[in-house]
Amino acid sequence: MKFGLLGYPISHSQSPALFAAAYPGGEHSYELIEEPDFDKAYARFLESYDAVNVTTPFKEKAAARADVANDVVKACGASNLLKKEEDGLVHAYNTDYLGVKHVLEERSFTGDVLVVGCGGAAKAAALAAVDAGHNVIIANRDESRAIRFVAANIGRRSSASMLAIGLGMMEALLPSVSFIIYCVPVALPSLNDGTLAGKTLFEANYRAAQYSAGHGYEYIPGEVWLAAQGTESFRLMLS
């Protein structure tokens, strides 16, 4: 089977190496489809590939273009996996959701989950956390964006809650938080060694990390996120 990655620029991507490590026999291939134009990239997928991962800046376009999108893709408005299924249609999945949910379900903790940011990855993480049974606080610079997302997802199958706040309110709510999922590209002064003490911070960004281990809090690097969503991607591709 033939797989690939859609995005631009993606020459730095670790996905081919991860795939080769997971499936070293060479029975399947994994290639970079580096096109600045989504329509051209999507056409190459339809012509030559069984399934593709999708990265920046095409996740929203992938979700909109697929024939079938599951509830998480619809809620996030973003997909990072497109697959041609047996029904002849292109299905969209979100493996950020699956990967984050797996990481959370491996851990035992009390207290709320704080998701910093409200982009595609952050939305997937928030849904994963609430579906794993944790109360979630979403903090975003544009508070209205977070409020709209939470309002659109009231009544999910989980009994846990979601709350939207602006970044200015975040520090006041930190005492109730045990686990932070960090999805923005800059460090925030309110999240420092003192306020993070005793908590866990899981960072989405593996190329330009803003935090690190050894500062009085547990740090889970972006490579763990990359590997977790990659494992789920490859499982879906080959299922």
Could you walk me through the main structural features you see in this protein, from its secondary elements to its overall organization?
The protein has 239 residues and is α/β, with parallel strands linked by helices. It folds into two domains: 2-93, Leucine Dehydrogenase, chain A, domain 1 (Rossmann fold, 3-Layer(aba) Sandwich), CATH 3.40.50.10860; 97-223, 3-Layer(aba) Sandwich (Rossmann fold). 38% of the residues lie in helices and 23% in strands. It contains ten helices and twelve strands. Strand 8, helix 7 (143-152) and strand 9 (162-166) form a beta-alpha-beta unit. Helix 5 (95-105) crosses helix 6 (120-131) and helix 5 (95-105) packs across helix 10. The protein is globular, with a radius of gyration of 18 Å. The N and C termini lie close together (11 Å).
Spell out the blueprint of helices and strands.
Layout: E1 2-7, H1 15-22, E2 29-34, H2 38-48, E3 51-54, H3 59-65, E4 68-69, H4 71-76, E5 81-84, E6 90-93, H5 95-105, E7 112-116, H6 120-131, E8 136-140, H7 143-152, E9 162-166, H8 170-173, E10 177-182, H9 193-196, E11 200-203, E12 218-220, H10 222-238
Parallel strand pairs: 1-2, 1-3, 4-6, 7-8, 7-10, 8-9, 10-11, 11-12
Antiparallel strand pairs: 3-5, 5-6
Helix pairs in contact: 1-10, 5-6, 5-10
Brief description of this entry?
The protein is α/β, with parallel strands linked by helices.
